[in-house]
Fold this sequence. Notes:
The protein has helices at 17-23, 25-35, 41-52, 123-129, 134-138; strands spanning 14-16, 58-63, 66-71, 74-79, 91-94, 101-104, 110-111, 121-122, 141-144, 150-153, 157-158, 165-168, 174-176, 182-184. It is α+β, with helices and mostly antiparallel strands.
Amino acid sequence: AGAATAGAAAGDDTLDARAVRALGPVAGKRLIAARVPGLAAVHLDAAWRLIVAPRRGTRTLSLPGATLERAYDVVRVIPAGAAGPASPPRLEISGPDGPYTVDAWRAGDRMRPARLRGRSRKLSDLFADARVPRAARGAARVVRAASGEIVWAEHVGAAYAVTISVRPASRSRARPDRAGSASPE
């Protein structure tokens, strides 16, 4: 099981599909059974089919006690009743063309990423090119200039010819609470 655990540290909930596939069906199913105990042979067969399926997009498989989610070559084991993902950290943005707003990307949003040297593409296409899993795409944030133009997108980076710095806000800074007074995070 050494090859399959190369991408999965102790306590980690991910497996490398290529490494599991390289083990072969018997050892691969044993590894899956160790991660999700109590599965019947029919469930292990279905999990194996998920592992050997083509690596396009995101696929899920509901099993007794867990869900397997494959996004390209990464397989996440999500225990039944697991809490949803934590909210993303606040962003600290600095640049000369402010003020900036942060919001979720919307279908049809376009951007001129630096790697395309000013050519415009839809964010959905940029996310697909970068092989960003669908779940991560849905939660992706964009930074817009006052004009409404997207100057930074999560998983893509800064726009062409834009000087901007975007990073998670430090937790030591004070931020306003609901009543309007400042309180540390």
